[in-house]
Amino acid sequence: MTLVVAALYKFVKLPDLTEKQESLQSYCQDRGVKGTILLAEEGINGTIAGDRESIDSVLSFLRSDPRLQDLEHKESYTESLPFKRMKVRLKKEIVTIGLSDVDPSEQVGTYVNPQNWNDIISDPEVTLIDTRNDYEVGIGTFQGAQNPHTESFREFPEYVLENLDPSKQKKVALFCTGGIRCEKATSFMLSHGFEEVYHLKGGILKYLEEVPAKESLWSGECFVFDQRVTVRHGLEAGNYEMCAGCGYPISETEKSSPKYEEGISCPQCFDDLTEEKRMRLQEKKRQR
């Protein structure tokens, strides 16, 4: 059976977090929906999976809240559930940048639809920046994009302040997986004097869904935060697997490394893997 994977987020004031957490957790579990939804006072962010009827029901339940009635979501499809359980968690931020004064509900950059994105990033006056972390960029990115080489999104503001200048970079275009990181990134940049800031509406996932491969300026695959690991154009499952030792994506080339052991380690974590964890993973592998 084909299952639906729905990714969603919205920045909106949600002070009644505990009540909403309990009702949403129960509603999703009763319908067999799996995934993770984050709730914070600044909004909601999550990815869930289930059959068509169940996903539609959960989305309708969310939109029955007047604050979320215009909640947008993106869909992809899979033959098996990419999540093992349902978690509704309370957080300080739905995407962590670590700055309390960054508020996308107050200001964000200019949204660019996937169909118009190629024109924006082909402009020689535009500085194109990938807001994702270094390992994500290594799997795939847009041609000509700058890689900030960050290990977490918290490092992005520092990268901007140290490497970019609003008097020199007059036009800036940002992108991320589903669009949510760019909400905060563009808000931050606008508050620091950058005047013309664009971001890809719906993120890379929407671009890969709507822009034909023959017209695409995307190279590689896109990392996703579920058991599919990566996706390609048309949101088809990609060629990467997840390392059991560190959770990093592994390519076919990395699997040929002597540091790769299925279910145990990969070149990324081999040297740092403790003997205790190695033994635990080996035992887990034997019990499968």
UniProtKB/TrEMBL annotation:
Catalysed reactions, semicolon-separated: uridine(34) in tRNA + AH2 + O2 = 5-hydroxyuridine(34) in tRNA + A + H2O
Pfam families hit by this protein: Rhodanese (PF00581), UPF0176_N (PF17773)
Keyword list, A-Z: Oxidoreductase, tRNA processing
EC primary class: oxidoreductase
InterPro entries named in the record: Rhodanese-like_dom (IPR001763), Rhodanese-like_dom_sf (IPR036873), TrhO (IPR020936), TRHO_N (IPR040503)
EC number: 1.14.-.-
Keyword flag Zinc-finger: no
Gene Ontology MF terms: oxidoreductase activity, acting on paired donors, with incorporation or reduction of molecular oxygen
Superkingdom field: Bacteria
Annotated ranges, domain Rhodanese: 122-216
GO terms, biological process: tRNA modification
Membrane-spanning segments: none
Xref: HAMAP family: TrhO (MF_00469)
NCBIfam families registered for this protein in UniProt: PRK00142.1-4
Function: Catalyzes oxygen-dependent 5-hydroxyuridine (ho5U) modification at position 34 in tRNAs.
Family classification: Belongs to the TrhO family.
Protein name: tRNA uridine(34) hydroxylase
Gene designation per UniProt: trhO
